[in-house]
Amino acid sequence: MNESWIEVEVSAKELEADGVVRLELVDREGGELPGFTAGAHIDVEVAPDLIRQYSLCNSPRERHRYVIGVLREPSSRGGSQAVHDSIQAGHTIRIRAPRNHFALDPTASRYILFAGGIGVTPILAMAEHLSDSGKPFELHYCVRTAARAAFVRRMTKSSFSAHVHLHFDDGLPEQRLEIRQALGSSDDDAHVYVCGPAPFIGYVLENARERGWPEARLHREFFAASTSTAASAEESFEVQLSSTGQILTVPADRSIVEVLGEAGVALEVSCEQGVCGTCLTRVLQGEPDHRDVYLTDAEHLRNDCMTVCCSRSKSARLVLDL
């Protein structure tokens, strides 16, 4: 990960939908920003020592600005609240260069994009890229109410509006998502991309699996861990630092990263829910108890890395590459 910070100006802040603000970020000197690919996100320092990730939703062709959409979370731990209440147009904030863990597979024959709520942000950048590239795709945007649907005007006025399908829970029955129809056949080399709340992602992926879609062609990005994923701790265990041999005990009510911090081992943490991968750490020995939604099932089975903000241990001791 690029550790350097970039200072940008908030050139615009507007209400995009109920509970959602749109921020436009530009270089303070009017220059170009680092390039990005569809599905990428940036780290944003929303307050001192408070970092959050937000997906870029503008076209990857644009180098003069980044656009993000931020939902005010009712259970905010400070991130979305700071963006809504404290960050204003004209302010200078710090970000890191874009990273992408949700990239489009360029070999796909077509793309089916599903967005739930604020999960539309990376999906929108994908639609912009696919439209520019002339590749076939469909975008299904599901929101509880039309008033909470962000970027709808932009999508309906875009060159790819014919590929966009809006599904509102409070709308007419005929416009609601018919998941089997939207998925269609898995016979060709199509790929599915889904982003949004955990239940929505689970709904899309389970229906795809039932229809025979292989895991390699199913892609997802979570914005928050589900209640079941962010399970409570049950037992204490030990972690050993490979560099010094130091052994630390992680109590049942503490996280690994908290114990490491108290011992003077500072790891950067952002989401604290196993969503962003910021605290991903190599595991040299032991069996992690994975409680994140960042790693894939296949990566969980390898047990060679873990998110130390929320995951724990199935073995009595973990040896970490620290």
From TrEMBL:
One of this protein's GO BP terms? methylation
Family matches, as Pfam families: Fer2 (PF00111), NAD_binding_1 (PF00175)
Keywords (A to Z) from UniProt: 2Fe-2S, Flavoprotein, Iron, Iron-sulfur, Metal-binding, Methyltransferase, Oxidoreductase, Transferase
User: Annotated Gene Ontology MF terms?
Assistant: 2 iron, 2 sulfur cluster binding; metal ion binding; methyltransferase activity; oxidoreductase activity
Q: Which Gene3D superfamilies match?
A: 3.10.20.30, Nucleotide-binding domain of ferredoxin-NADP reductase (FNR) module, Translation factors
Cross-referenced PROSITE patterns, in alphabetical order?
2FE2S_FER_1, 2FE2S_FER_2, FAD_FR
Query: Which domain of life does the UniProt lineage start with?
Result: Bacteria
Q: Does the keyword Transferase apply?
A: yes
Q: Where is the FAD-binding FR-type domain?
A: 3-105
* Domain 2Fe-2S ferredoxin-type as annotated: residue spans: 237-322
The record's annotation in PANTHER family points to:
CARNITINE MONOOXYGENASE REDUCTASE SUBUNIT, NADH OXIDOREDUCTASE HCR
User: What is the protein name stated in its UniProt record?
Assistant: Vanillate O-demethylase ferredoxin subunit
- Which species is the source of this protein? Paraburkholderia phenazinium
Taxonomic lineage = Bacteria, Pseudomonadati, Pseudomonadota, Betaproteobacteria, Burkholderiales
